[in-house]
Amino acid sequence: MRRAARLGSGAAAVVPRSRSWGLTSRPGFINNYKKAQSNNGQQASFHSRPKLDSAAEATVIGGPSPLPEVELPDIPETPTKNKRVTIGEILERRRRAGRLVAPTAAGCDSGVFKGDSSGKPMAKDMSHHLSYEASIREPCKLKQAARHLKTPGIISLGGGLPCPEYFPINSISLSVPDYLHNPTLSPPEVHPAFQDITIGKYDTHPSAPVQKEYDLSISLNYAQAHGSAQLIRFVTEHTELVSNPPYADWKTCLTVGSTGALEQTLRMLCDSSRNDSILTEEFSFATALETAHPLGIPTFGVPIDEQGLIPSELDHILSTWSPSERGNKRKPHVLYTVPSGQNPTGATQGPERRKQIYDICSKHDLVIIEDEPYYYLQLPPTITPTPTPAPSNTTDFLDSLLPTLLSMDTDGRVIRMDSFSKVLVPGSRLGWLTASDQLVERFLRHAEVANQGPSGFSQVILHKLLDETWGHEGYLKWLMVLQREYTERRNTLLKACEEYLPKEVVSWGVVRAGMFQWLHLDHTLHPDSRTKSILEIEEDIFESCIDKGVLIARGSWFRAQQEVAPTGLFFRATFAAATPGNMTEAIRRLGGAVRESFRL
C-alpha cells in the first residue's frame, strides 16, 4: 500500500518513500497554483494566505513534522498514457493562478508549476545509489531561515541580504528579435523585427507603471540554490511540453550549466571509497571524463555504432562484470550518456535504441545521467536529393523531436541535464536539472554550500527574454530557427568533405543532431602503420593541420579509457562557428594534411 498526504487544496497526493527536506515556496504561493490546476475557474492571488491545518502547513513548507497517513490502493506500476501537454493548457493554468509573487530569497517547489499527475506512479527509492557525502548533507540553516520571510509584518535581522538601494545598477536594456509576434523564422542578424526591452530595479513594486513578476532588486540579491521561482516555472513548463515525465514526483532546479551540474551529480552518486565507476560511450565528452577522474571515479567505455551506445554491449558488460578484471571496481550503477548529437561522435540514439538502453538500465538498476545540450539541434537525416522538410509550426516541431529518456522514465532513475549554452548564450552559465524529488533535494543540499545557484544577472535576463517577451511559443520558434541554421552549417561541412577529403582513407556519416562531425581515418592504410602507433600517426596529422592553419580535435582526447590503446584513428570537426567559406577552406587544409601523411 502507498501513503497519501492531504495538501492545502484538498487534493490527495502520494508521499515519496523518502522525505524531502528542501525549502518550498510560501503557502499562498503554492496553494494558488494548486487551485489553478482544478476547474473552479476562480482567479487566484499569490498575495492571499490560505487557511491550512498544521499538517498541510508542514507539507507545504517542507519541514520535518509528521504527515497524516491514509491507506490508498496500490498504484499500478504502468502509468497512464503520457499525454502531451500543450502551450494552451499552460497559459490557462497561469491565467487561473494569477500573477506570480516570489520576493527576494523566496523558496520554491517546482512541483507547484506542474499539471495534474494523477494516475502516475511515484519514483522508486534511489537512496541506495547515493554517496556517503550526499547522504549526510544537511539543509543550509540560513537558507531554511528564509522561509520565515513570508510571515506578514516580519522585520528581518537574520539573513545578511544587502539593501537593493545600494545596488549600483538601476536598469538593464536589451534589443532582441521578436519571434513571438513576427512569423519570419529568420536568423537574428537578418530578422526584420527587433524589440527593446528593459529590466528595472523595482519593476515588481506596486507603484511601477506595469507591475512585473521579477526585477533587479530581487534577482541581484542572494537567492535560494534552486534558482528563482520565476525561471523555474518556465523550465518546469518547458519540461512538460517536451518530456512530461510519466511519474508523479519529478522536480526541476536551475544549475550553473551542465558541467557544474555533472560534477555535483557525480559526487552525489559516486564514492571512490566503495570502488565506484561509471559507464559511458567509448568516446565521450572530454570535460566529463576530466570531471570524473580527479574524484577517483574511473570511466569504462561501452562500444558504439552510428546510433551511439549499443544496448547489447551495455547489457553484456553489466551481466558479465568481474571486479577482479576491472581494477577491483564494483559493478557500475551510473550511466552517463549524451543521446542526441553525442560529443564527439555526433551519433544520435533513435527511439527504439533509447527504450532499449532505458530497459537495460532498469534491469541492472542504473541511474542514467541524460546530458542533452544538443537535443534541440536535431537535423534532417539526408541532404540530397530531397531534404526532409523542416517543421512549419511549433506543434510540428515538438512532434518531430525524438523521445527523451526522461519521457520513458517510470522509475525516477533518469537525471536529465538541459542547458541554455548551445541554444542561447554559453556565457549565461545557466541550465536546469530534472529528476525525482529525492534526487533533486540531495542535489540542492550540495548547491547550497557550493555555487548557491546561478547568477542573478543570467536569471533575470533569460526570464525577461524567454518568459516575459517570447513565451513558450516564441522560444520554440527560436529553436526552429537554430535547427534550420545548423542544418545549413552541417550541409556546408559535408559538401566540403565530399570535395576535399580523400575518400579512400577517410569516411564519415551524416550527423542527425548537434554540431560535430566525426571523421574516421583508416590507419591500416597508412604507410607507417607497422612502425608507428595510432597515437603517433594522429599526432603527426594534428601537427600538420596546425602548420596548415586549421585546428581540429584529436579523437584520442575523448577516449573513455585512456589507459587502453586505441583501435581506430579519428578526428572531430565542428560546424558551429566558422563562416561557410572558412569552414570549406578548413576542410581543404585538413584534406591536404591527410594526403601528405598517407602519401596520396
TrEMBL record:
Cofactor field: pyridoxal 5'-phosphate
Pfam families found in the cross-reference section: Aminotran_1_2 (PF00155)
InterPro entries, sorted: Aminotransferase_I/II_large, Class-I_PLP-dep_aminotransf, PyrdxlP-dep_Trfase, PyrdxlP-dep_Trfase_major
Gene3D superfamilies (alphabetical): Type I PLP-dependent aspartate aminotransferase-like (Major domain) (3.40.640.10)
Domain of life, source organism: Eukaryota
Keywords: Aminotransferase, Pyridoxal phosphate, Transferase
Single GO MF descriptor: transaminase activity
Domain Aminotransferase class I/classII large: 196-590
Family: Belongs to the class-I pyridoxal-phosphate-dependent aminotransferase family.
Protein name in UniProt: Aromatic/aminoadipate aminotransferase 1
Gene giving rise to this polypeptide: ARO8_2
